[in-house]
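User: Reviewer 2 asked us to show a designed sequence for the structure in our supplementary figure. I'm pasting the structure tokens here. Could you produce the per-position amino acids so we can include them in the response letter?
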């Protein structure tokens, strides 16, 4: 598969964590929440987000509510080790789509950060964040 096709194929997987992280970052900047400095999100790079998104897609497709999947950024090229868990929570239907609240946890440099977005399974089989 050519690199451009691979990049396009990965794009939906990046949506979950990237959207959650961007939302937190935007809120932090808008609210001048300097206390978010040196939290796991500040150490995450594109390939770290990809590792988190891959774990989220797997967890949403294979784990029962409350069952966690461990993830880490090994092999992502980041000198900062980042790891955590992805835990699908309550499943429900919304607008005819299967949705799940998901808890994303990241640990880096002694700090822990948690996000709890809702993801819904699209007709193409990919999970995407539900707009709140």
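Assistant: Here is a per-position design you can include in the supplement:
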């Amino acid at each position: 598969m050519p690199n451009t096709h691979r990049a396009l194929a990965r794009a939906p997987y990046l949506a979950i964590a990237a959207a959650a992280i961007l939302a937190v970052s935007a809120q932090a900047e808008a609210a001048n929440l300097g206390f978010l400095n040196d939290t796991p999100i500040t150490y995450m790079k594109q390939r770290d987000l990809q590792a988190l998104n891959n774990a989220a897609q797997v967890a949403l497709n294979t784990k029962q509510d409350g069952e966690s999947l461990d993830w880490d950024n090994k092999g992502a090229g980041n000198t900062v080790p980042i790891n955590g868990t992805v835990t699908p929570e309550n499943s429900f239907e919304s607008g005819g789509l299967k949705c799940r609240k998901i808890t994303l946890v990241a640990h880096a440099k002694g700090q822990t950060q948690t996000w709890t977005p809702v993801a819904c399974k699209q007709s193409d089989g990919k999970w995407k964040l539900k707009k709140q």
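For the response letter, you might also mention the following. Residues 3-30 form the longest helix (28 residues). The chain is about 35% helix and 30% strand.
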